[in-house]
Predict the 3D structure of the following.
Amino acid sequence: MNKILRVVSVGIVVLGCALGALSQADPKTENKLTASKSTGAAEKPINTVLPAAFVVSEEFVIGTGDVLAVNVWKETEVSRVVPVRSDGRISLPLVGELQAGGRTPKQLESEITTKLKDYVSEPEVTVIVQEIKSQKFNVLGMVMKPGSYVLTNPTTILDAIALAGGFRDFAKQKEVYVLRRTPDGKQARLPFNYKDVVKGHNSAQNIALQSNDTIVVP
């Protein structure tokens, strides 16, 4: 009897396992499609910033290498951007050769206007200094920003030191000097005592700079 029960029990277990295997269904897999959206960034327009012309004083004297923009109202064929040649002259249509070096922009405007009257009715002329290469000064030594600076307006030694960012630590402020080329080709050394000048003494030392002057701060 016990043997019969064991056989029946084993049969039930085997049958249960078989039914369990048959009852298991294959899992369904869901395919998920990922839609990728291309986000094209709009191109930004390129901003072209043209360099502004120098703002020069009315007393500014044009020199060799300077670049001038000569504009004649409603006369694009005459308007030109021209460099001042080594002989100090420029060339323009209708007008021809002109002496620009040694003159102010206003003086040059006046001459161009006069010469154009034979070709243009009531010409309106403007001369703008776009680039200055003829008049510069240097600041060397113990300043924050040593280098070469454009001499566009009347500039004193104090102005130049301020443009150069002021003195560095341990600068010898009483021993500043300016190197200047004299008409005979020699080099003059002009002293500048900063301590005295800022106190109101020896103000005559605070001279106006000339083209190619070099300030030295020991």
Q: What stands out?
A: Helices lie at 2-23, 105-116, 157-163, 194-198.
